[in-house]
Amino acid sequence: MLYPGLPLILTTDNPLYRGTLDSKVVAVEDSKLVITAPLQNGKLTLLPVGAILQVRPAGSTEQHGFRAEILTRTFQPQRTLTVTMPHTISRGGRSPVKFENTTTARVIAITSGKGGVGKTTLSINLGIALSRLGFRVCLIDVDLGTANVEFLLGLNARYNIGHLLNGEMGLKDILVEGPEGLQILPGASGLEKLANLNEWQFTRLVNSFNEIDKLFDLVILDTGAGISSNVTNFLMAADEILLVTNPDPHAVLDAYALIKTISRLRDKLNIKLVVNRVSKPGDEARVKLNLLNTCQAYLNQPIEFLGVIPDSSTVALSIREMTPFILHYPDSAAAGSLINIAQRLTGSAARRPQQEADEQGGLRRFIGELQKLFTASG
Ligand SMILES: Nc1ncnc2c1ncn2[C@@H]1O[C@H](COP(=O)(O)OP(=O)(O)OP(=O)(O)O)[C@@H](O)[C@H]1O
Ligand SMILES: [Mg+2]
Questions:
Q1: 176 and 281 fall within a common domain
Q2: 280 and 233 both lie in a single domain
Q3: CATH number at residue 52
Q4: Ligand 1 atom 5: the closest Cα is on which residue?
Q5: pLDDT at site 100
Q6: Which of 132, 267, 274, 308 has its CA 20 to 30 A from that of 347?
Q7: Residues with CB under 6 A from ligand 1
Q8: How many other C-beta atoms lie within 10 A of the C-beta of residue 132?
Q9: Does a structural domain hold residue 94?
Q10: What is the extent of the structural domain holding 362?
Q11: What is the model's pTM?
Q12: Residues with Cβ within 8 Å of residue 145, at least 6 apart in sequence
């Protein structure tokens, strides 16, 4: 509980101020906390806006601490700092938008039947579009074979999910900030199977996901392609599946095979479709006919159509330039389609009916499901 007058102990990532700093709560607001300017050994510190603090009430253990970011500094009438509240992440001064009735993160797994159809490109650009809409978004690279989100964003992150699993780092230390405040958990290639994690590693993953559950509105998982249990477990555990295909009949057939497999394993899946690399007028109608209608008729599995992204040289170019097309070519047709997809996605129902009754939602529920699934298939 934070209340005015509560003494606080802070540490910071700012190299000028090693060791602990003292402060006090001045005021507690909705998404912000006002504290007295921190002192170190009785001397005033001059921490800049944007500095990251680890904050805990004096006398409590580090477990009760939280991460905060300095939003503003005030000198009159009192020297104070305004910092982010626990469970919020700064959105460049903008207030985070919340889903109605949703207090936990909504987990969306992006996948495809065939590889190379544009999952990672969509994950990154959609993540940025959703952040721009005001949602707190975390993109997790769970393509454990060929992790490349971080590479495509040119982020050069120091740590990745591997450091989390071997116990070297905590999840919040690994998250890196991408464009528009999008938070990214970089993947690690060569971590072939989550099923191979030992119990200690799995517990670590569970605890870490629980830790960030309330920090985000949306968690996007960029998965690998295909029907290995390593991928399908993520799909079945997620709140919803965003299936990507291109209009090529092979890709559509592989998408159908994937839906067939997972819909047999679990009913009431919430699946949405994006058709990428559309180049001909009949493409959209053909995929709808061959995939949506067939899934409904033969698998009794409805699929919501979210939209198309045109086949565009700007997309390919932006990948080569390692800059997401939504940022580099904001006026392109591809960027326009993506914004429509982001709006449709966030305007639509958040969870599949089965989950509405669940007491636990979001990442907490997701990881519980994942645990059951990997235990069963591992
Ligand atoms: N809309 C588009 N227009 C043109 N080219 C595109 C488009 N979307 C994706 N591509 C091309 O497809 C390639 C593969 O995209 P991406 O890496 O996003 O696919 P993926 O599904 O994540 O692949 P993997 O299955 O290997 O993870 C990109 O390098 C890009 O050149
Ligand atoms: Mg990929």
A1: yes
A2: yes
A3: 2.30.110.10
A4: 316
A5: 37
A6: 267
A7: 112, 115-121, 143, 225, 276-277, 309, 311-312, 315-316, 319, 334
A8: 19
A9: no
A10: 106-377
A11: 0.71
A12: 189, 192, 224
